[in-house]
Amino acid sequence: MAGRIDARLTELGIELPQAAAPVAAYVPYTISGNTLYISGQVTVWNGERRFLGKVGQDFTVEQGKEAARLCALNIIAQAKAACGGDLDRVVRVLRLGGFVNSGPDFHEHPQVINGASELMMEVFGEAGKHARAAVGAPSLPGNVAVEVDAVLEIA
């Protein structure tokens, strides 16, 4: 039987990608007590890299927001894997850290990372409200447009 969050994903018409395997010397997540730390997730959909380039140059802010949303889908997929398939174990999204591949004249990082933040609130409701950082970077791994990491409280 699907849980409350799985039902919410279905209601929203949201499909999760497969939880991505790490591509370097790290693990996709760690758990300490009731805290789940999810490594930075990039713009990959089931192994296919998307949104390659810089926001503000190769992509509009709105497209950057879509890229951040894709990162958040990957975060939720990792959370599901970490929780043994039970997203109802997520008590609260505590923090997101967003990185935007952009040039020195780009200043709309918060609007881009809103794509990830808004998805967390859509899916988890009140428990999806979180603290956040949104910063620019001169480059990101694989030239992806956005990377987002997360800290969640789990039961």
TrEMBL record:
* Gene3D superfamilies to which the protein is assigned, alphabetical: RutC-like
Q: Where is the Endoribonuclease L-PSP/chorismate mutase-like domain?
A: 7-146
Supply the Pfam families for this chain: YjgF_endoribonc (PF14588)
- The name under which this protein is listed is Enamine deaminase RidA (YjgF/YER057c/UK114 family)
What organism is recorded for this protein?
A: Azospirillum rugosum
Q: What is the lineage of its organism?
A: Bacteria, Pseudomonadati, Pseudomonadota, Alphaproteobacteria, Rhodospirillales
